Amino acid sequence: VEAAGSFSYTVPKGVSEWEALSGACHAACGRRPWLTPEREIRLRPGAGSPVTLPQAAVVGFSTAEDRSAPLSRVLIRDGNGYYTAGAEDRAAVELGIRRKRYWIPPTRYEDGRDSPEELLLAGMAAYRTAGVELAGLWPAYRLWDRLRWEERDWVVAGVRLFAGGDGCRTRLTLRDAAYADALGQTPGVPGKRKERDRGKMERRCAM
Q1: How far, in Å, CA of 95 to CA of 147, rounded?
Q2: What is the pLDDT of residues 2-29, one digit of tens each?
Q3: Which end of the chain has less neighbouring CB within 10 Å, N or C?
Q4: Contact 69, 63 (CB under 8 A)
């Protein structure tokens, strides 16, 4: 955020402290914050580390698709109240998805709202997720760690450690590494968003 320099931000009415912080970070450099297990606030996406899955410990793997999440087009209202312009995601269109969102530009009381492009990315980011369950406790996994499984690169988006009648388990939520930074910018480049050719994007997963 410091690298963004001076910027103006108005805290919207009725938001929590975390939402105010998130909006300020977004307004400053286009990135959202997240809280690490060590209770450190960092900007997402994180760089992550390459990790491997212990195949002998894998007891379950599943994928899911949510076709109700992606948006094929976001229509933007102009100053006269008409929706004359818009942004389209060809990846959603190629999947046969026809779902629109009507977007009104934010006022000064709505700083930090996602842009139409970010809404398209967020929608496709929620399209496909995966989950893997490991026998035993594996607390070394962290958010944004990257791994390869079943011919696809994944990013760790969630870690759960739990114990039950059948012993201890670790459950990881995975998302497609190609879209790991769908809700943020390229790591290490403050203030500059990563350019994407949506026509070449085949799949995105939730973040």
Answers
A1: 26
A2: 555 677 788 878 889 998 888 888 778 7
A3: N
A4: no
Which residues have a Cβ under 8 Å from the Cβ of 136 and sit 6 or more positions away?
Answer: 57, 167, 168, 169, 170
Residue 143: both structure tokens together: 């958010």
What are the pLDDT digits (tens) for 144-196? 788 888 788 888 888 999 888 878 999 999 887 776 555 443 333 233 333 33
DSSP-H helix ranges across 17-138? 17-29, 90-94, 116-125
> Could you give the CA distance from residue 164 to residue 95 in angstroms, rounded to a whole number?
39
CA 20 – CA 11 distance, rounded (Å): 6
The residues near 42 (Cβ < 8 Å, ≥ 6 apart) are 33, 34, 36
128: how many CB neighbours lie within 10 A of its CB?
A: 22
What is residue 199's DSSP assignment? G
Which of 104, 112, 31, 54 has the alpha carbon at shortest distance from 74?
104
> In whole angstroms, what is the distance from residue 73 CA to residue 89 CA?
6
* CA–CA separation, 49 and 69 (whole Å): 28
